[in-house]
Design goal:
With 384 residues, the protein is of the alpha/beta class. It contains 15 helices and eleven strands. 47% of the residues lie in helices and 14% in strands. The protein has an eight-stranded parallel β-barrel, surrounded by ten helices. Strands 7-6-9 form a three-stranded mixed β-sheet, with no helix packed on it.
């Protein structure tokens, strides 16, 4: 069943575990995330970033995607999640990651997203608050949950980038949540976007502790979110490089640091890079094990891009030759099926590991099954 984000995070806070939120950029990735969460009886949060919607709209240079591209892409990923998740025995959330404006939010909601994140963290505090409140008013009226962000993460991911971090001020978080009425708040406490987070990162757990306690003291209901939290498994990076890749300076957040942040108040942990790495490793491995596929009319173009772009690990750099599969799940032949199988195995590997580590396995029955219409009524009654 498709549900908004709020009941999933409410259960995580009650249960003292964290819910992994996993970015997808293709129909088969969405399918794999839902299936592996079903295997572990875990709720599922699938995330489509703003630029992922542009890619899913058929834009290879997704960084330059238009609103029209994002509308098409949001519809494509929304249709895929409905196809695989509407009758699923687990609750499924489709969440917009790093929406930057109302146009992106509207495209996502109209495409079937049940939750949105508006990232105004680069704006002055007052402007961030104003933009976020505008999104909350629009989304809550439709039963859609909203995540905001306060504080700036260093690193680069899609069009989100900063050279330095600005840690979240707990007192500012209270003012922000009180005035915006967001359901979740992404905070900056030492995580970083991208695959190069530095060695032996130590998270400042006192920040989520302080934010949580301040919110509780003021009677404010808001879950806390950890962005930039990929673990960047060393074994996958090594395998990519052994298979001809050239991924350098790749270091993630130690899993022990993320798990230690959960009892400090973190209820949602965003992961993208781990999936990118596992899928790219599997693509390289496929062509290594079956070299005849390099000349395939169906998927040979993917190999050529892999061979040209050895330092890249984002599958979107390699998948434009199979856009019909990416956007609509089309599998015209056995070669394409082999490619899809490799992608899905990579997704399941990365996601399944973190479902167990974050503690959401077996938690699907704990989630209240609330549709968007009922959620909209609840928001209205609560004045949110």
């Amino acid at each position: 069943m498709l549900v908004p984000l709020k009941p999933v995070l409410d259960a995580a806070r009650r249960g003292g575990y964290a819910q992994g939120a996993f970015n997808v950029n293709a129909v088969c990735q969405a399918k794999a995330v839902i299936e592996i969460n079903e295997t572990f009886r875990s709720p599922a949060i699938l995330q489509g970033a703003d630029l992922a919607n542009a890619f899913m709209g058929g834009r290879a240079d997704f960084a330059n995607g238009t609103v029209a591209d994002k509308i098409v892409g949001a519809r494509n990923i929304g249709e895929a999640v409905r196809r695989f998740g509407a009758e699923s025995p687990i609750p499924v959330v489709l969440h917009l990651d790093h929406g930057h404006d109302m146009e992106s939010v509207r495209a996502a909601v109209e495409g079937g997203y049940t939750s949105v994140m508006i990232d105004g963290s680069a704006l002055p505090f007052g402007e961030n608050m104003e933009l976020t409140r505008e999104v909350v008013l629009y989304a809550h009226e439709r039963g859609v949950s909203v995540e905001g962000e306060l504080g700036v993460l260093a690193g680069v991911e899609d069009d989100v980038s900063s050279l330095t971090s600005t840690y979240t001020n707990p007192l500012a978080a209270v003012e922000f949540v009180r005035n915006t009425k967001v359901d979740a708040l992404a905070i900056s406490y030492g995580t970083m976007h991208g695959a190069s987070k530095g060695k032996d990162v130590k998270l400042r757990r006192e920040i989520p502790i302080a934010v949580r306690e301040c919110l509780l003291h003021e009677g404010l209901d808001c879950a806390l979110v950890s962005h930039g939290s990929s673990t960047v498994p060393r074994y996958i990076v090594d395998e990519i490089n052994e298979l001809g890749g050239n991924v350098q300076n790749a270091h993630g957040i130690p899993i022990a640091e993320l798990k230690a942040a959960i009892p400090c108040g973190i209820s949602k942990i965003n992961v993208d890079t781990d999936i990118r790495l596992a899928v790219t490793r599997n693509l390289r491995e496929l062509f290594e094990r079956r070299p005849e596929l390099k000349g395939s009319e169906s998927i040979g173009g993917v190999w050529r891009l892999l061979d040209e772009r050895r330092d890249q690990f984002d599958p979107r750099a390699f998948l434009p030759p199979v856009f019909d599969t990416v956007m609509h799940g089309v599998v015209p032949d056995d070669d394409r099926q082999a490619l899809v199988d490799a992608i899905e195995r990579g997704v399941r590997e990365a996601v399944g590991t973190l479902i167990v580590e974050f503690g959401s396995f077996g938690k699907a029955p704990l989630i209240e099954r609330v549709g968007l219409d009922e959620m909209a009524e609840r928001y209205k009654r609560a004045g949110l």
